[in-house]
Amino acid sequence: MDLERVPELWFPDGNVVLQAEDHVFKVFQGILAARSPIFKDMFSFPQPQERAPEDEFEGCPLVPMMGDSAHEVACFLQAIFDSEFFPAYPARTEFDIIEGCLRMSHKYQVDYIRQRALVHLSSGFPTELALLDRRRYNSSELAAVERTSWLPPPNPEYGSIPVPVLFRAISLAREVEALWILPLAFYHLSSHLTHPERLAHYLTFRDNEEATFSERDWVAFLHGHGAFSHIAIPLLSCVSNYRVDPRCGCRAPHHCESVRLKALGKFHDLADKRLAQPLHIFRIAADGPLKKVCASCFEHLQLALAECREQLWNKLPRKYGIGKWEDLRKIKKEALGL
Ligand SMILES: [Zn+2]
């Protein structure tokens, strides 16, 4: 096999040559051993007096990295040997780089890169509804630390992660135990695959490179996908079931009732069009169809909707069989060193 040198990772005074697929990297044993206990162990085996020709490359020991992709190894080694290549969040980066750095740093136990990659990956999958709402409704006012660091600009920040990336993110999250990203990743995937034809496409072509899911993830996803279609119903019920309570201070119950019924018609139309984001089908805002109810009803309706959305959000992980937010946030905090 012809081996191709990777120029960015070919140090003339390096003392070890790593090989992934048909690419070779000439780097430094001492630095790798200082960063990774796996490399430390690997290099501490006593070297034979004489190496077989296939075990060396231009006088350096040749170390095959079995099962690793050349692209991922290149990202990982660049993160180690070039301090500008993979800066910490909120600096911008790319999903490809995060994926390579995270998978390899997990395997070779380079904790600081693993943690840095997890922070970047997690920025695309908030575990708080409030942040998701800010991205949906106030995207122009977001601070750098509220953004996803790896979505290309222009970055609408909401529901814009492409299907192939979601598949890869979910598989990666399972592999490195970043389970807290799964509920929202599955939710986004559901919103891309609401149309039965789209769903069938991914289910039928299971060898498709884009959709490398385990059996377990398909089962989890489909389980939650069924529930996804019903999320809109309790939200609409907040408005349809609202009853003016005489104690709440409404002075124009008939007027409020008629405004509410008209608004409900509009929300139903929206629900038809925007089922792709059921948690954000409508909101009760000063410029929305409910603006003309009295101040008291407005406030009560807003509260009822907020409570209902919070409940739906809290149930989201369980719908996909991934436990509770409480536990997921705990493991996230530990893994991200927060
Ligand atoms: Zn009222």
From TrEMBL:
PROSITE patterns the record matches? BTB
Q: Describe the location of the BTB domain by residue ranges.
A: 14-44
Q: What is this protein called?
A: BTB domain-containing protein
Protein species of origin? Mycena indigotica
